[in-house]
Amino acid sequence: MAFFGVVQSGAHVHQCANLLRAGVHSSSCRSLHMTTRCAAKEYYDVVVVGGGAGGITMSARMKRKVGAGKVAVIEPSEVHYYQPLWTLVGGGAKQLTSSVRSTSSLIPSGVKWIKSEVKGFDPDKNCIHIDDGKEIGYKYLIIALGLKLQFEKVKGLPEGFNYPKIGSNYSVKTVEKTWKALQDFKKGNAIFTFPNTPVKCAGAPQKIMYLAEEYLRKTGKRSDANFIFNTSLGVIFGVKKYADALLQIIKERDIQVNFKHSLIEVRADKQEAVFENLDNPGETKVYQYEMLHVTPPMGPPDVLVNSAVADAAGWVDVDKETLQHKKYPNVFGIGDCTNLPTSKTAAAVAAQSAVLDKTISLVINGKNPSTKYDGYTSCPLVTGYRKVILAEFDYNAQPLETFPIDQGKERRTMYHMKADMMPFLYWNMLLKGYWGGPAPIRKILHLGFK
């Protein structure tokens, strides 16, 4: 394929990046994406790394922007999961099969699917290294790798899942074990954990707890159950409005919450979970469990750690408003793999995709990115089999609600939105690049209410 643009030195790229951060745009820097190109046999205008929510969404948007045959997605997995549904799968309200589609059915026509694993980044040469020593060249790069589950960071896991009474809604391999543990519950402690790391969907660790509590009430076992939520955090939820509502529910349902408690070991053969008191490191407490739901530690994918595109912690280092890389102007990030200071959810990906679409359009045309991402994210807090508190908020942990009603209350309508409408929206709108979050709807619905 023809290479669009002139060859410039890597030093020029860094100079332009520095000018960009300072808000200065020279005429030569407007073509800074046309830098040194690696000697790759395959080359695309846009390469998207990762075939999750962010990756598929941006590939659809980029195909419409630069044309068929000019966009590639690098993704090794043959299946794609709508993971927000796994809360309901773990609670027995949905089937796992309803959360699965083939990757091939989701890759937009005209977009090349490179079924491979990324082995390394060389942004100075606009190059991606994949399996078998192959290289993929790009003009623009979008990194959408998601994050990595780290069960192995808890002693006794993941092998502990070979025993009964333990599950996790965060993995396709363990989500159905949650439902089995709930069904088999007899008498004792039902324990739910939150790790001492960033997580995707920070509300999910307690959503399953509320479903489990209601299930045991309906099956006549609640009086024999002691519900415990051990969280490494110091608060129940990061936004005060929703935290206050959740604490009231916790009080009404007689659930014990232990803050600053981090799971460090599971002794599945003895049905014991060991927690460290983060306020007094080294101090541990052993809990016997009849049911244990584990939210694993999480971190950036291995390929990002110590890479040129990541920050010191291993997350893709992007501007929090434009999603453009802080050092490489033709590199962008979206979703869970980035260091954006907001919750890692599919709703955040939707809002980010609309901003990133506009950012890349402006960069292609040599202009400054001007559309700003406000940190919008959403977490439908499932509090029962027919109840949801729809939490929506921004970078400042302030409510940013779509509907002109109090979303801090449990509502059946919001449950149906979570269980029925959002999956439809995901498969048919978001992944096809037509859903950029509810901001336009919010503006319409709030006319006359503000």
Automatic annotation (TrEMBL):
Its main location: mitochondrion. This is Sulfide:quinone oxidoreductase, mitochondrial. It is found in: Mitochondrion. SUPFAM superfamilies: FAD/NAD(P)-binding domain. It comes from Eleutherodactylus coqui (Puerto Rican coqui). Residues 44-157 form the FAD/NAD(P)-binding domain. PANTHER family: SULFIDE:QUINONE OXIDOREDUCTASE, SULFIDE:QUINONE OXIDOREDUCTASE, MITOCHONDRIAL. Its cofactor is FAD. Belongs to the SQRD family. GO terms for molecular function: FAD binding; glutathione-dependent sulfide quinone oxidoreductase activity; quinone binding; sulfide:quinone oxidoreductase activity.
